[in-house]
Write a structure and sequence with these properties.
The chain has about 600 residues and is of the alpha/beta class. It folds into three domains: about 90 residues, Chitobiase, domain 2; about 290 residues, Glycosidases (TIM Barrel, Alpha-Beta Barrel); about 170 residues, Four Helix Bundle (Hemerythrin (Met), subunit A), CATH 1.20.120.670. It has 21 helices and 15 strands. Helix 10 links the parallel strand 13 and strand 14. The chain is globular.
Length: about 600
């Protein structure tokens, strides 16, 4: 990009300094002149670009449109691989398919991003023309109401949130909180001062029948909301099947709505409980937006069935697909891709307000930031243009290079678990002695799938890619999973001395591979996240290593070997989840 040359006015250079820095563009007195004009006919976000040898003219309706126009122009220049003087003449008119284009990041399940990582995400979202980012916060914001004992070691401070919000404002992206005001509050309600506010038969849920408990959760969520300057707030209230009765649920929702409306906020709420109790839909206040989530539909028709009840009563709604990243190291792209396309297509066809992609971190939030890059790109592309993304465009956004290899690598990696009954994470964490998950499938197919996946990554990934370290980690992960599944089924097939010796060697090699995997993973984690949460993942891998050391003892003792072979046969038909609780195993 050294040859890129544009003649920029001080006003343009100042307004778009973040973009220019990101794309390594700078003002050059003898470059092609760039002019930006106001064109109100294009709307708040629409723009046009007219490029000719004598200069480039941008028309835009407002500040956000100017930013989007410059982002597009910078990416076109990067894709051309030449200086601005070498750009072909072109005319472009662009505007969004959907007005609300959001992404929600879970920062409450272990992976709390550093401020630098959060700012990097914000800029990359803005390049995709997302206009909203929501941070899902249960108990990971350092609040005055939380005692030091109740605060986690790794939390986002109010100062960090404000800095992130200020940074996002520069790229015209609104940041708002997604909270919980009823259920999913076990971490908060387990603290001594607040236990009395929990529902008697459900420690995850606030006692909605108690005015004191309602007042507490209002104070708690208000302190979080005040840290953001967005007019929006998501009050949550999803998955409350074990929460209060339907009437009490709706009364609590109305109380939270009144509370935040009085403070100038526009309320969003998850829609699943209203779909379970559709008689309340018509009573939802007109100024509330329903977040209508469905993570399994892979065609627009699946979403349309969920849209219909809210549309019947003319309630605003935003569709929410997902990255399919929870409980995985490598997100399931083969599920998220169709889910994102279906949501965006349905929202566009039904003329809904928009789409908010969600990225959840249930059960440890083990995926790394690179893992969701492809899903973010897909959602951004579909939200803005209502069409499928191109490999070259993904390369520009994710790697600064129009080479389609990056697109194909991420696509391949997202398919890695597709033909198998369980994901790589289940095979990695399963007990190596009893193998409850891999024991249910075709062992050779599982091993071949991950061995071939690792070989493909080793052959195709390039060291000059900004994602090369991630692909190297994925390669190590897949090789380790394949080796572990192989050992889990080799150790009990033959009780001869030579076979048990070979299995013992496999045990030791696998322990070393796991140690290397832990080191690689920790390096990735520390580059993007605060330290808390990392120890939980490393602890799980250490428990596997401990279990492998015990398997070594089994292999060294013929009677013990025979005993565990029989025990494995006896438990082959047991429920697979029976042997996943490693802590319980070692407590015995």
């Amino acid at each position: 990009m050294k040859n890129l040359r544009l003649r920029l006015s001080p006003e343009i250079a100042g307004e778009h300094r973040l973009l220019l820095k990101h794309f390594r563009l700078r003002h050059c007195p003898d470059g092609v002149p760039l002019r930006i004009k106001t064109d109100d006919s294009l709307g708040e976000e629409g723009y046009r670009i007219d490029a000719a040898p004598e200069g480039i003219t941008v028309g835009a309706g407002g500040p956000r449109a100017r930013f989007y126009a410059m982002a597009t122009l910078c990416q076109i220049i990067a894709r051309s691989g030449a200086g601005a003087c070498g750009l072909p003449a072109f005319q472009l008119r662009d505007f969004p398919a959907l007005p609300f284009r959001g992404f929600m990041l879970d920062v409450s399940r272990g992976a709390v991003p550093t401020l630098a990582a959060l700012q990097d995400l914000i800029l990359r979202l803005a390049l995709l023309k997302f206009n909203h980012l929501s941070l899902y916060i249960e108990d990971t914001l350092a609040l005055e109401q939380l005692s030091p004992a109740g605060q986690k070691k790794s939390m986002l401070s109010k100062a960090e949130i404000r800095q992130a919000v200020q940074f996002a404002r520069q790229v015209h992206l609104d940041v708002f909180p997604s909270l919980q005001s009823l259920c999913h509050l076990r971490q908060l309600l387990r603290q001594a001062p607040w236990r009395r506010f929990a529902q008697a038969d459900n420690p995850d849920c606030v006692d909605a029948s108690s005015q004191e408990a309602t007042a507490f959760i209002q104070r708690f969520t208000a302190e979080i909301a005040e840290t953001f300057d967005s007019p929006l707030i998501n009050i949550g209230m999803d998955e409350c099947e074990k929460g209060p009765a339907a009437d009490l649920y709706f009364d609590h929702f109305l109380a939270m709505h009144r509370f935040f409306k009085a403070r100038g906020k526009r309320v969003l709420v998850w829609g699943d409980m209203f779909l379970k109790h559709p008689n309340f839909i018509k009573k939802i206040p007109d100024d509330v937006t329903v977040l209508n989530w469905d993570y399994f539909s892979e065609n627009p028709e699946g979403f349309r069935k969920q849209i219909a009840p809210f549309k019947l009563h003319q309630r605003q709604q935003i569709l929410c697909p997902t990255t399919w990243s929870w409980a995985k190291f490598i997100p399931a792209g083969y599920k998220s891709g169709p889910n994102i396309e279906a949501a965006c297509t349905a929202a566009w066809r039904e003329k809904l307000r928009g789409v908010m992609l969600t990225s959840w971190g249930d059960d440890g939030n083990e995926y790394l930031p690179d893992g969701i890059a492809f899903a973010l790109f897909q959602a951004g592309y579909w939200n803005w243009s209502a069409r499928a993304p191109s490999p070259a465009a993904f390369g520009i956004w994710a790697g600064g290079n129009p080479d389609p290899d990056l697109y194909h690598l991420f696509t391949f990696l997202g398919q890695i678990d597709k033909p198998l009954p369980y994901s790589h994470r289940y095979y990695l964490y399963e007990d190596p002695i009893f193998a409850p998950f891999s024991g249910q499938g075709d062992v050779k197919e599982i091993i071949n799938r991950y061995d071939k996946g690792a070989a493909y990554l080793a052959k195709r990934s390039r060291n000059d890619s900004p994602h090369s370290r991630y692909f190297h980690f994925a390669e190590s992960l897949l090789r380790t999973v394949a080796a572990k599944v192989r050992l889990s089924h080799d150790w009990q097939r033959d009780d001869s001395d030579s076979a048990r010796h070979r299995a013992g060697e496999q045990c030791r090699r696998l322990q070393a591979a796991l140690e290397k995997l832990k080191e690689e993973y920790a390096a990735h984690w520390r580059a993007a996240y605060k330290h808390e949460g990392l120890f939980a993942v490393l602890g799980k891998l250490s428990l596997i290593q401990e279990r492998l050391r015990f398997l070594e003892r089994i292999l060294e003792d013929r009677p013990l070997h025979a005993h565990y072979r029989q025990a494995r046969d006896a438990t082959a038909s047991a429920q697979p989840y029976m042997t996943v609780n490693f802590q319980e195993i070692f407590d015995q």
